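Quick one, tokens below. Sequence please?
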């Protein structure tokens, strides 16, 4: 099926080339110009036929095409030749190609608009941060997953596109504005930070990162929307109590805003402890380390050996431990770290580890050797959001008072507790996958994002696309954007392939967007493009003088070579992105 969508992408690109060249062809024939060749594609000919003095052919490289009018290469004045036509006729013939692309794009956007739009994942339009690199300057300054972004370097953040665009810009400083949100307390605080992006190399590509990845997304278990198996056979979520329509909202003490953040929480080497302190129940995450990392007295070693014996662990076995020593009843008696962060205090009693009850200190030690996940889910229909609702509160269906209640019962009462529409799952061990000596933790389920209805006004979409092209050329001209991040023919096919794989209307949207880009780009005033020929004909119309063919050749040849080089350059980097699995 994947290859079928690639075929759709190739057909889509070829179609856009076809209608572009058809525009040139029809206007040329209307003004009695003789068309020698109508070609879709370049390179060796796959199929060709001749009809009414015109050779029609399909080349083996489907990334372009051309219409050759008699006399274009030599200034012939014979009937039907290019230069025998009047300048305004030649001008209209040249304009027709890009114009057809623009009209098709507008009609495509209209079709989508008048059929109520199409569905996209909410991550594309989310302004909430999905993940923050813990080593980044933004993290050090207090920015966290779930905080809202308003702008980066003065550019309004409307979703994932702005984050990607910023990641490939070569600028020394980034100004990030937004607001920090405390969801449990219901408070917000604006921030305005200047940070220095870090240079990172991802699969051979250097990008400048401020530590933000994808925006926030929902993590919903909905087998109907998953192609293939939604849950692997040995998934721990089977017995944990996950059901259709559940959304993962909280894991091991953290509200969850993205798959990237979830992976970080799963990989975190900490224990989620339920602790009794001064007759009050609290929950705290305490880091685990190999016991050999701690400097222990002989008495402490003996106490730990007693705990090992009671836990039926070998005395010589290397074990994971927290930086606190407990007695036989699981009561903290001492800190094992010189730089104690005060997470636990003397006389704190550990009642549960990762949501599993403990009675003795040996129970605590035994549970520290394995990793369990404590998770809370919310249940809802999660119907697609209307376009105007894309900024709906991320936890609209969650009552945080209920969440507080549920969290307070972790490690105290049995799992599978429900309060309102939220539910505590049974503690479970994640799946462990080892690769190149590294351990990776997985849930064994496919979680999908909530969908949003996208229905852009055709005029607004035209305006937005042209603004993006203008911004692109502005950054290119200032040296802030490397051409290697631009998409070539293969990248364009890849974008259309992704669109067709989502839905028919998503495919039409991408087809229309690329057609609009193709039309606008061809109108650029470069000699090798339609825009250059428009300038030549306007010059002749205004001055009454035609640019000499030899002068024209001297102007065109360098730009032809430049265009070929650019096509090869972008194609090479398209392939690099595919084979290096580069993702932004």
């Amino acid at each position: 099926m994947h290859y079928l969508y690639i075929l759709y992408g190739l057909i889509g690109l070829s179609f856009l080339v076809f209608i572009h060249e058809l525009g040139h062809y029809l206007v040329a024939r209307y003004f009695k110009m003789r068309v020698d060749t109508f070609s879709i594609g370049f390179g060796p000919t796959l199929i060709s036929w001749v009809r009414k003095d015109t050779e029609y052919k399909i080349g083996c490289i489907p990334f372009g095409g051309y219409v050759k009018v008699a006399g274009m290469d030599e200034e012939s004045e014979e009937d039907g030749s290019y230069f025998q036509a009047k300048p305004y006729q030649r001008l209209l013939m040249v304009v027709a190609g890009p114009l057809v692309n623009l009209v098709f794009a507008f009609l495509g956007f209209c079709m989508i608009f008048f059929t109520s739009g199409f569905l996209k994942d909410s991550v594309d339009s989310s302004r909430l941060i999905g993940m923050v690199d813990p080593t980044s300057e933004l993290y050090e300054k207090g920015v966290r997953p779930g905080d809202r972004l308003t702008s980066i370097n003065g550019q309004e953040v409307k979703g994932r596109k702005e984050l990607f665009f910023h990641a490939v810009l070569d600028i020394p400083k980034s100004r990030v504005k937004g607001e920090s949100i405390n969801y449990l307390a219901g408070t917000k605080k604006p921030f305005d930070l200047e940070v220095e992006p870090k240079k990172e190399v991802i699969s051979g590509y250097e990008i400048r990162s401020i530590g933000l990845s994808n925006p926030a997304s929902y993590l919903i278990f909905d087998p109907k929307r998953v192609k293939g198996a939604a849950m692997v056979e040995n998934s721990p979520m089977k017995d944990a109590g996950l059901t259709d329509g559940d959304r993962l909202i909280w894991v091991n003490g953290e509200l969850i805003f993205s798959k990237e953040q979830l992976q970080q929480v799963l990989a975190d080497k900490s224990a989620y402890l339920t602790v009794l302190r001064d007759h009050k129940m609290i929950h705290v995450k305490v880091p685990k380390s190999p016991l050999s990392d701690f400097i222990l007295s002989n008495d402490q070693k003996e106490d730990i050996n007693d705990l090992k014996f009671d836990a039926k662990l070998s005395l010589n076995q290397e074990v994971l431990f927290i930086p606190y020593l407990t007695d036989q009843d699981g009561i903290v008696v001492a800190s094992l770290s010189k730089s104690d962060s005060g997470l636990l205090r003397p006389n704190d009693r550990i009642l549960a580890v990762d949501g599993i009850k403990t009675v003795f200190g040996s129970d605590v030690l035994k549970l520290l050797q394995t990793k369990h996940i404590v998770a809370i889910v919310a249940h809802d229909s999660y119907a697609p959001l209307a376009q105007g609702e894309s900024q709906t509160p991320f936890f609209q269906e969650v009552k945080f008072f209920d969440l507080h209640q549920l969290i307070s019962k972790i490690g105290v009462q049995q799992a599978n507790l429900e309060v309102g529409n939220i539910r505590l799952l049974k503690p479970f061990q994640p799946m462990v996958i080892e690769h190149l000596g590294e351990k990776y933790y997985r849930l064994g389920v496919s979680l999908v994002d909530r969908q949003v209805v996208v229905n852009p006004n055709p005029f607004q979409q035209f305006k937005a696309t042209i603004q993006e092209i203008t911004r692109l050329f502005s950054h290119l001209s200032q040296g802030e954007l490397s051409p290697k991040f631009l998409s070539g023919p293969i990248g364009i096919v890849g974008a259309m392939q992704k669109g067709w794989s989502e839905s028919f209307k998503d495919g039409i949207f991408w087809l229309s967007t690329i057609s609009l880009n193709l039309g606008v780009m061809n109108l650029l005033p470069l000699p090798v493009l339609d825009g250059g020929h428009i300038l030549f004909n306007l010059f002749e119309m205004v001055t009454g003088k035609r640019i000499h063919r030899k002068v024209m050749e001297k102007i065109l040849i360098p730009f032809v070579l430049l265009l070929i080089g650019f096509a090869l350059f972008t194609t090479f980097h398209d392939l690099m992105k595919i084979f290096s699995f580069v993702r932004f």
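The first strand starts at residue 35 and ends at 51. The chain has four domains: 2-117+456-579, 123-217, 220-252+373-451, 267-368.
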